[in-house]
Specification:
Layout (H helix, E strand, L loop, with lengths): L4 E5 L24 H12 L6 E4 L9 H11 L6 E3 L21 H4 L13 E6 L2 E5 L3 E3 L5 E3 L3 H12 L5 E5 L25 H10 L4 E4 L6 E5 L2 E5 L9 E9 L5 E9 L9 H11 L2 H9 L7 H7 L6 H7 L11 H8 L17 E6 L1
Parallel strand pairs: 1-2, 2-3, 5-8, 8-9, 9-11
Antiparallel strand pairs: 1-12, 4-5, 6-7, 10-11, 12-13, 13-14
Helix pairs in contact: 7-8
Family: Belongs to the cyclic nucleotide phosphodiesterase class-III family.
Protein name: Metallophosphoesterase
Organism: Fischerella thermalis JSC-11
Length: 368
């Protein structure tokens, strides 16, 4: 019998010690709050009697050794086990350079947090009786040395061997890149496709074959729950960008033998130098949104003329903040019909056309 348990998810921490912070005036991320926001979260989580904590990647600003070392030391002091996987920012280069660790170095920093065999960039472990975690690495480098989001053949083969041996265990998968689309046509959109796992089409049938229902991802920096043919992809927003969220989840059984996952989402409301973080961060994102929105409007599928895009962009300054917040509903009646209908697709609307507000607080049926 799988026990009831409670855990938390905090994603895309982008930990940046003050002397390592990059000063890019146009960046969306408030890495200035990375350490203080994480400390605020930990202060809450240590009061909750958690069974474990999941961190699905982008643990550091850009793979800096000092930031990895600081985080590993901080996690070692927590009263509950923590498990991590690498994000694209954690291992941005195959070989170490003056700024970032090498790809192969990552597991050695996190041997206490899943990587008992640091020779492999992926792992599995039984985290509770009857509960198995699989931590996947979705960072690959092509022949030109460019980083891509993909599982290689060796890892897929290893994964099938692990899944074939799980029996009646509840399997939880953690991976940085999204495996189910969270945005309209995400896998083919020119701005959103890089957040998808390139070969999700190979991974998903494998997970379905062995009854895996729960996948936790990051990377996209939004609060969203996506569902596809039996699999929930639960992605959690970034701790360093609006709305600075994290999740607390409870797995439980009911009297009929069904299994449920109850999910609550929280926000970091205040940190030193940002007493009203939610307001400041939303404004920060909106103030930097104009180039992003113009590009979004001029690319397919809308492909608007530049002049029209520049005219519409100011009215959409909070569009991405609303998406990131989760459970967004958009009234686009004041836009040209084609544009309005497209933006409404980014709202929390089910395929049947009704609002479905499950991104932040929900109870999901896992089995039964």
């Amino acid at each position: 019998m799988i026990p009831n348990f409670r855990f938390a998810v905090v994603s895309d921490l982008h930990i940046a010690l003050p002397h390592t912070i990059w000063n890019h005036p146009s960046r969306f991320h408030l890495v200035e709050v990375s350490v203080s926001a994480f400390e605020s979260v930990l202060e809450h989580l240590t009061q909750l009697d958690l069974d474990f904590l999941l961190l699905p990647g982008d643990l550091t600003q850009h793979g800096e050794p000092e930031n990895h070392a600081w985080l590993a030391q901080r996690l070692a002091k927590l009263p509950f086990p923590t498990y991590v996987v690498p994000g694209n920012h954690d291992v941005p280069v195959l070989r170490a350079n003056e700024q970032s660790i090498a790809f192969a170095d990552f597991p050695y920093y996190y041997r206490k947090f899943g990587y008992k065999d640091p020779e492999k960039p992926y792992y599995t472990c039984q985290i509770l009786p009857g509960v198995r975690l699989i931590g996947l690495n979705s960072n690959l480098f092509n022949d030109q040395g460019e980083q891509i989001g993909r599982l290689d053949i060796k890892q897929l083969g290893w994964l099938e061997e692990v899944l074939a041996s799980t029996g009646d265990e509840l399997v939880i998968v953690m991976i940085h890149h999204n495996v189910v689309e969270h945005l309209p046509n995400q896998s083919r959109h020119p701005m959103a496709n890089r957040y998808m796992l390139e070969n999700a089409g190979e991974l998903l049938p494998l997970l379905r074959r062995y009854g895996v229902r729960l996948v936790f991802t990051g990377h996209l920096h939004i609060q969203d729950v996506a569902y596809s043919q039996g699999i929930y992809d639960i992605t959690t927003g970034s701790l360093v960008s609006y709305p600075h969220p994290y999740r607390v989840l409870e797995f439980r059984h009911d009297h009929y033998g069904r299994q449920w996952l109850q999910m609550l989402s929280y926000r970091v409301e205040s940190v030193p130098n940002f007493p009203n973080l939610q307001h400041s961060s939303r404004k920060w994102m909106g103030d930097r949104s104009f180039p992003f929105i113009v590009r979004f409007l001029t690319l397919p599928p809308l492909s608007l003329p530049l002049e029209q895009a520049q005219e519409l962009a100011p009215t959409l300054r909070d569009f991405w903040a609303n998406v990131a917040n989760g459970d967004a509903l958009f009234d686009c009646s004041h836009f040209p019909p084609e544009v309005g209908h497209y933006f409404e697709k980014y709202g929390a609307i089910a395929t049947c056309g009704t609002p479905t507000l499950i991104d932040n607080h929900s109870t999901l049926l896992v089995s039964g």
